[in-house]
Fold:
Amino acid sequence: MIKRKIIAVLLLIASVANAQDLKKEDVKKEVIRLLDSINKAKLPDTKSGVSNDEHWYDRISLRGYAQIRYNGLFSTNDKVSCDQCDKSWGTTSTDPNAKANNGLFIRRARLVFSGQVHPNVFFYFQPDFASSPSTGIQNFVQIRDLYFDLSFDKKKEYRLRVGQSKIPYGFENMQSSSQRLTLDRADGINSSIANERDLGMFFYWAPAEIRKRFEMLVKDGYKGSGDFGVFALGVYNGQIANKIDGNRDLNVVARVTYPFVIGNQIIEPGIQAYTGKWAFTGEISSGVIVNDPQYIKDQRVGATFVLYPKPFGIQTEYNIGTGPRYNTVTKTVDVTDLDGGYVLLNYKWDLKKQRLYPFAKFQYYDGGKKYEKDARSYVVRDYEFGVEWQPLKAFELTAEYVVADRTFVDSALPINRQQGNLLRLQAQFNF
Structure:
């Protein structure tokens, strides 16, 4: 068939030179049409069985989202802040005259490149163009995810994930920020792994049917966590993403979760745990004493329960553990117990092609944050009330009112309890 088309093209070209009455423009159009059909034809490779016209980039998809925030409305205390949450919320400066960082702020600007580059190899790469370190520099590119899934069966129920990816600990940590209702993750769970990611190797297992259910819970607007398997087991550096490991002690993590269908409802209980050693690499101030700073015990275990909003939903998690925490009395970093979690109530309201999600959340945390200055000590009791409105698939608007009571102390701020309220706004664009 292809040979016949080539012969036809040659004959048409010859006719242009020999036929006076034939319109050359018509011949040109026909030649282009035939050449285009030849280019699209499947030319099988006898050795591999793969068509020669298939390129690697044909298997790669591209999507993304961006979030723009404003935290400057009705603030009663600009000293209320959360360094791990949003660097445009309040200020952590020790200067009493410092102004809050309450201007418009690009919280996230992410592109996701992904694809099944081989029947047994899945590729995922997500850079963020709005990273903001503690130096005050804004909007530089940083890798969030770069991993490969190697599957061992045709249904892809058994996978080995290698690279930088989310650590399978907690539901809210696994949940994409493009899906989450509240603007920030709860301190009690998120203090386990900053940015939720690290370099590691993880084994995931989930039946094909359950993998489809995980996908549906995200696709159909139920605010799922995504597909991180029914069972997960892995090792990782334990030093947070984009940082060189500070010791040779790999952390070990395990998670079990399952979305059950009960009548018209779907519930998902889960349990997770990790153990390892944390290494300080510059977080400790001069004069603060730490015993064995390269090998600090870091262990947690947590439980999750999710009732997906059909239309009313409940999401709650709690964890306990042991980790480093600044002691204001002795000016040392001690290994102490920690605990914390949250309860989120939400409602999914479908209005023709629009969606509305009213929500309310309470969170609590009593412990340290190993990746902040001096393993900063926290006691957090926050209430959040808000609504997410999705008039279009490509646009979401969230308004969240926060009633905060946050104590966070280190060597520079040994006495620092801040209470206050504010209204936070976020516009999200999906593409």
